[in-house]
Amino acid sequence: MSTAQEVASALLSIKAVFLSPAKPFTWASGIKSPIYCDNRLILTAPAARKIVEEAIARTVKEKFPEAEVLMGTSTAGIAHAAIAAWLLDMPMGYVRSGNKDHGRQNRIEGRLEKGQKVVVIEDLISTGGSCIEVVEALREAGADVLGVVSIFTYGMKKGLERLAAANVTNYSLSNFDTLCSVAVEENYISAAEEQKLKKFMANPSDESWME
Question: Distance (Å, rounded) from C-alpha 204 to C-alpha 202?
Answer without folding.
Answer: 6
